Amino acid sequence: MDKIENTIQETIAKAKAGSQIAFSNLLDTFWNDVYGFQLKRTENENDAEDITVQTFSKAFDKLSTYNSAYEFKTWLITISKNIHIDLVRKRKRSVLDSWGGNEAVKKVLDDAPTAEDRLITEQNLATLLQHIKQLKPHYQEVINLRFFNELSYAAIATELNEPINNVKVKLLRAKKLLAEVINKKA
């Protein structure tokens, strides 16, 4: 193993031990590789970015399953490729479903939310906001900027005066913590 590979393996070991700095280093080191790979596959910046974020989220959640006999970059690219395949399959299913004859017409006619639908949506939103308020303020802020203000990662980085990769890691962490809060309440 060469010196760079040793450093990567040491960083992975630290990340497995829970070091946020190690996670951040891995994200910084491999973000462009995964994003570039997806950009070539999808030819769409938004899809490439979303798939890349999902890739790192899944990889970090499953880091304990990583086998050091393989290159970390190859492992990430494989995860990324599988996420893209799932996305394509899901889109194909949704297109086929929407062409289902009478069902498609019924969906268009029944698209307007009923009063009950609006009430349920408002209640779910209120519950979600209560869950978000349980997070630390900096996580609340990044979630609000991304999902409620619908800002891009670059716009959030500008708003917070932080590097874009920090914003991505912070958002990944915020979503993971929010999921834990929601699961505790369920």
Task: Give a nutshell description of this structure.
The chain has helices at 3-16, 20-42, 45-61, 72-98, 102-109, 115-132, 137-148, 153-160, 164-185. The chain has 186 residues and is mostly helical.
Account of the protein in words:
This is Sigma-70 family RNA polymerase sigma factor. One of its GO terms (biological process) is DNA-templated transcription initiation. InterPro entries: RNA_pol_sigma-70-like, RNA_pol_sigma-70_dom, RNA_pol_sigma70_r2, RNA_pol_sigma70_r4_t2, RNA_pol_sigma_r2, RNA_pol_sigma_r3/r4-like, WH-like_DNA-bd_sf. It comes from Maribacter algarum. The protein is mainly alpha-helical and 186 residues long. The chain has 2 domains: 108 residues, Orthogonal Bundle (Rna Polymerase Sigma Factor, Chain: A); 75 residues, Orthogonal Bundle (Arc Repressor Mutant, subunit A), CATH 1.10.10.10. The protein contains 9 helices and no strands. Helix 1 crosses helix 2 and helix 7 crosses helix 9. The mean pLDDT is 82.
